[in-house]
Structures are given as structure tokens and as C-alpha cells.
Inverse folding.
């Protein structure tokens, strides 16, 4: 019983998010191929919490950037895509995304933003953005992930893989790798 409690705590540790609140913009991070992050960005628009959603776009398939795929998919789901802006880039990790968006946030005079990412990614992404982008109010918002349930991650192979890789990334980011 103690072991199950520890496993659950290890999964829940990865999730560090807050309820969404009004902000100048929402940033939807790349890396979600199920569409949960972009749909949450759309919901934040619909709720009037943000006037604009920025969509991060690393290269994902056949030389096309993810922001293009995501925004087109969101349009088919009824999202107000005229209030979404894609940011295509060739970055390949969350720290680089934080540095990139930190510059954009500063250039555009943003005072507050919501960072939308998958539940398992919230602690690490939030920590990296807080470190790289100090002085701008940040709220980390968790999108559910189909393959990761923090309290039961060991029940499926896919969830266990998400857990393992996110913990490796979390530990390596703590030492600057």
C-alpha cells in the first residue's frame, strides 16, 4: 500500500498547475499530438480569459511546423482561429521555447500570460519559464493528457513511458542539461 502511495505521489509531483485566470495572452506549447493543449487554448479564448493565443510550432512532420497543423485542426473544431497566432521555429526543447517566448513577450510588452501544456509537463515547463522569463506574471494551466493519469501512471505502458521520460527530463533540467 505504501508503495502505491509513493508511485502516485511521484506521478502527481510532475503536475504543478493553477486554475486559469485573466491574462494578456496564452501560449500553447508544442509537443501535443492529440490536440488537448490547443483545445484548452480555444476554451480560454471562449471564456474571455485571454484575447489571443500564441501557438508554438516546432517542426514535426515532413518539414511542416506544428503550429500550422494545430491551428488548422482547431479551426475544424470551431475555435476562433483569427485570435490565434502561430510561431514557427526550429527549437527542440522547452528551455529553448522559454527563451524564445521570453523575447517575444518582452518585445510585445506582455505583463501576464497563461502557459498551456500537458499535465505531466507543467512542473518542468513552469519552472523553466519562471527562470528564463522573470518579471512577467505566469500562470501554468494543465491540459489533460490521454496517456498520463498522475495517480495511476503505472497501470498502462504508455503512461509509464510518459512518466519515465518526464522524470528524466525533470532531473536533467535541474542540473542544467
Amino acid at each position: 500500500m505504501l508503495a502505491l502511495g509513493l508511485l502516485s505521489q511521484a506521478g502527481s509531483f510532475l503536475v504543478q498547475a493553477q486554475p486559469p485566470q485573466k491574462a494578456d495572452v496564452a501560449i500553447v506549447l508544442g509537443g501535443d499530438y492529440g490536440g488537448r493543449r490547443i483545445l484548452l487554448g480555444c476554451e480560454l479564448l471562449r471564456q474571455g480569459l485571454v484575447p489571443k493565443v500564441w501557438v508554438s510550432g516546432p517542426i514535426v512532420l515532413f518539414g511542416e511546423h506544428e503550429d500550422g497543423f494545430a491551428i488548422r485542426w482547431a479551426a475544424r473544431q470551431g475555435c476562433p482561429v483569427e485570435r490565434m497566432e502561430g510561431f514557427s521555429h526550429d527549437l527542440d526543447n522547452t528551455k529553448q521555447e522559454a527563451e524564445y517566448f521570453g523575447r517575444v513577450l518582452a518585445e510585445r510588452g506582455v505583463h501576464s500570460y497563461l502557459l498551456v501544456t500537458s499535465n505531466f509537463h507543467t512542473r518542468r515547463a513552469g519552472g523553466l519559464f519562471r527562470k528564463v522569463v522573470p518579471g512577467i506574471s505566469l500562470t501554468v494551466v494543465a491540459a489533460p493528457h490521454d496517456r498520463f493519469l498522475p495517480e495511476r501512471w503505472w497501470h498502462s505502458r504508455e503512461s509509464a513511458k510518459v512518466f519515465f521520460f518526464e522524470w528524466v527530463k525533470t532531473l536533467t533540467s535541474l542540473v542544467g542539461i
About this structure: The helical segments are 2-13, 36-46, 66-76, 94-107, 122-132, 157-174. DSSP finds six helices and seven strands in the chain. Residues 25 and 50 are 5 Å apart (CA to CA).
